[in-house]
Amino acid sequence: MRIFVSYARVDRPYCIQIAEVLDFHEVWYDQKLAGGKQWWKEIQRRIEWCEGLIYLMSAESLASDYCHKEFENALSLGKHIFPVLIDKEAQVPDDISDLHYVDFREGLTVEAVRDLLRAIYTTEQLDWNMKASSANDSKPESETSNKNEQSDLTKAVRAMEVGQYDVAIELIQTLKERREKPIFIDLDKMLSEAREALSKEQLRRKMEQEYRDICLLVQSPVTRNIGLDAFRKFRETYPDYDPDQIANILRESPPALTQRSRLNQMSARIPLLEWCEVPAGDVRIETADKAGSTHVESFLMARYPVTNMQYHLFLQAPNGYRDPIWWDYSPEARAWRAGVNKIQASAYKGADRPRENVNWYDARAFCNWLGSILKAKLTLPLLRQRQRAVMGDDDRGYPWGDVFDKRFCNTRESDTRMTTVVNRYPEGVGPYDIYDLAG
């Protein structure tokens, strides 16, 4: 089936995952389009091209005018609609609530993926049956029944021949459920072989995908060491599979990675998550209680503030915000989390804007969750660390120097009156290339 995926930009990770799951179908989403009139014309052309539209429903997509237009266009053209609910906070509107939606609020579970594939397959079957029915209206009922049965059996055999075993399984199960089914064909044996072949095919695809990912890492000098480590583990399970001869590269002794390089490599798949090194040094601290100089050991600091997109991943991940383990660092944090009935939304939309409306407990929990993914201990910066990142070795008054300039940060003098994207002010970076330390 030709499928169009409608989604909000913040839900792009979900869109990519679902597109990968539907690799047996022709799936299109706007991954390569830029804005403008031509962009919307291509969207409309693709909606006309598709047979079905998957609508990824989140609070953001349901509030998006473009997503709603895509849904309305597909509906008016008589396309099949497959609503997929991915956000626990989303309120399904009345014009969609009558449609059966697939529940992905717990992530891409086996059950959710199965329900989506079954919905698409059932729709395809209905289309096939309608076409067959219109072509056979003038034929006797018995002849039409035999024709359809033979057609499904033929499709099942052809599906197995080309490796579409999941399609074959659905077709065989349909044959088994019919009142008049083949007498001499062992459908149970055929179903068992299709399932076994599907299992082997899935393992083979997983092996090849893992190998392709490892090759991608090995080919880049920046990620070569991570790729070689992964290949060593890969060979323990698949000792004979190495079409690109990665084993030859293992003869060289890989150089050691710095902590910053390793962390940046692991963070590469998360947009705008980069790390800068702040070297050890002394910093001046002035508080209401005391003033003086203190020594700060070297540390790593994120180049940008936490974005809406990054925090959205925390909210949506099955092991993210809903997992109470991230608040186990103190009794007060656990008590706070237990009392949360609704997560407060960001006041300003936009994937690359800084996430606000987050308190200290939530910020610590986010650090704990992200640290578990990156295999690193992440914390909020201490006052002396933040001051070191701002002042550097020359005790500057602002991250960029000693003279205030409203063009270098988002303050009242800038008259912006809202947050700005986190990489908006390259002139205002601190001495260690860290953004938004003022404003």
Task: Describe the structure concisely.
The protein is α/β, with parallel strands linked by helices. Helix content is 46%, strand content 10%. It has helices at residues 12-21, 37-49, 59-62, 65-76, 94-97, 110-135, 141-161, 165-177, 187-219, 224-237, 259-267, 308-316, 331-338, 360-374, 383-391, and strands at residues 2-6, 26-28, 52-57, 80-85, 102-103, 275-278, 281-286, 291-296, 299-302.
Write up this protein.
- With 439 residues, this protein is an alpha/beta fold.
- The chain is 46% helix and 10% strand.
- The protein has helices spanning 12-21, 37-49, 59-62, 65-76, 94-97, 110-135, 141-161, 165-177, 187-219, 224-237, 259-267, 308-316, 331-338, 360-374, 383-391; strands at residues 2-6, 26-28, 52-57, 80-85, 102-103, 275-278, 281-286, 291-296, 299-302.
- Strand 7 and strand 8 (291-296) form a beta hairpin.
- The two termini are 51 Å apart.
- Residues 141-150 have low confidence and may be disordered.
In terms of per-residue confidence, which ranges show pLDDT below 50 for 5 or more consecutive residues? Answer: 141-150
Shape: globular
The averaged pLDDT comes out at 85
For the largest beta-sheet, the strand count, sense and barrel status come to:
5 strands, parallel
Summing up helix and strand content along with how strands pair, one would put the structural category as alpha/beta
Distinct helical segment count: 15
Order of helices and strands: EHEHEHHEHEHHHHHHEEEEHHHH
Helix content: 40-55%
Determine the strand fraction and express it as a percent band. 5-15%
Computed over alpha carbons, the radius of gyration is 28 Å
N-C termini distance? 51 Å
The strand count comes to 9
